[in-house]
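Re-run with default settings, no changes from the original entry. Doing this only to confirm the output is reproducible before filing.
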Amino acid sequence: MDLYILDKIALRHLRCWVNRAGQRDLLQSKVLGFELGQIGFKIDNLEEFTSINRAEFESALTVLNEIRGSNVKYVPLFSRFPDDLPSDREYLIRRILGFFGLNTFGDRSKFGADPITQMQRDDL
């Protein structure tokens, strides 16, 4: 059974997952927590989650992945994201200098977009 339309709306707009009452399964709820953690979500009341229908779970994952941008065809700004990120201060200073025409980024092949304007470019 797929998620009901109101459940999808609650998940997408309120970040609220409605779970049906059922028999508690601690292992299944922990696996749910781990899988959601991998895409950047956290459940506050994980111990309250009961057995979850696989189709509902996959439907909810689809909605959550769309929230995270999986349906967008952009590449990340940093090609080695999230493993290799510059410090915020250094990156801001380099961007400001770039707006004045000073190229402080050197080889731009390690970026998925223009590092100064942060716009997608075909040549990068």
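The mean pLDDT is 76. The two ends are 43 Å apart (CA to CA).
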